[in-house]
Amino acid sequence: MRYSVIIPVYNRPDEVDELLQSLTEQSFKDFEVVIVEDGSSIPCKEVVDTYQDKLDIHYYNKPNSGPGQTRNYGAERSAGEYLIILDSDCILPAVSYTHLRAHETGRNLVCRLLLEKKKKKNSAKQKKKKT
Using the 8-state DSSP alphabet, how is residue 27 labeled? Predict the structure, then answer.
């Protein structure tokens, strides 16, 4: 397994659904998804179950300990050579495997994904201002 996408979650089943849908639309498939529920009172297990046949996905539920420990919990259970940590409110654009491999220097990959997320937010804000 090349990549592990680790997603810590706290009370965000709707956001997790959107993120998982965006992961099904990726052109590369050499990744697993590790969802770690951080003591949520509104779990996303049912949402995760709907993606079992579309993604290599693993769900864990643990007592609340905050985002840092939750990311580490997911990393400890991951099988990937590279870790990609995403917040549950991310929606990823389709990324080709070639594009992703070009950014496999660890920090650059994370920065690239964060920049794309920021660009989308800024674009949405600009559209909102125009209306």
Answer: S
Helices (H), the chain: 13-24, 45-49, 67-77, 97-101, 107-130
Round to whole Å and give the CA distance between 95 and 97: 7
Nearest CA among 70, 57, 55 for reference residue 8? 70
**DSSP assignment of 64-78:** ---HHHHHHHHHHH-
The Cα–Cα gap between 89 and 100 comes to 20
Query: What gap in Å lies between CA 63 and CA 17, rounded to an integer?
Result: 22
54/91: higher pLDDT: 54
Q: What is the pLDDT of residues 34-43, one digit of tens each?
A: 999 999 999 9
CA dist., res. 57 & res. 35, Å (int): 7
